[in-house]
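Weekly structure sync, notes
Attendees: PL (lead), two postdocs, one rotation student
Agenda item 3: pending single-chain targets
PL asked that the sequence for the first pending target be pasted directly into the notes so everyone works from the same version. It is reproduced below exactly as submitted, 240 residues in total.
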Amino acid sequence: MPRARYPKSSAPLPPPLPPATRTVGQLVAETIKLYGANWQAALLIGLPAALLSTAATGFDRSQTLEIVPFAGAVAATASFVGACAVVSGAPLRSRHALTAFLVGVLVWVPFPFLAAVFVLPGLAWFALVGLAVPAALVEGLGVRAALRRGLELGRADYAHALGGLATLTILVFLTQIAAALLLQNYADNSERVAAFLAGLVLSPVLFLGGALLYGDQVARVGGTRAEPATTGVAPRGAAE
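Predicted structure, written out during the meeting:
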């Protein structure tokens, strides 16, 4: 039986929805597109998380609970602030970047304890207040004002914020496990090397997606307070 031939469509793809109405699926698609346009910066974003994953390999539960809340706060916050800088174009060598880092550390500290029971409470916490980090960097807010702004943004469309973070986390977690197993079993890498490579390449998706989520929630609220960047937080390479 001859194969059926389907005509190829030459029509261009529809443009993505604006941040105010962007769906979770489009958030993921735009994150991957942004990653491809800024892959070198993305690898730098993934470096702190990859180093932490490598160091944590082999830790038991008690060691993880003792070390991750502190080392994870530094590594995850550094990656997230870097991702926010890539998306917004805000400078990292600034007082606002230091404030964003401090806010990120404060937001991160409860996460390992919430996630120790089940990961969803930790994601729920991040969805509620985690956008305080890009708020501090992009809008130039102080610590208290950034935390209040993060709460405002998280509540603007909480279902979208939680759904976006949960989808990105599941995508990165499952892909990272599969990649680590493939690297370990078929590329003759040690467990630590496999964890490092998988974290380096895949973890930036989560941080870049979180930075794009800030633009979605800002658009749902109605704009930034200081308006130092566009409402949709136009990412670098988006027009390329």
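Discussion points:
- Residues 191-221 form the longest helix (31 residues).
- The radius of gyration is 19 Å.
Action: rotation student to compare against the earlier draft before next sync.
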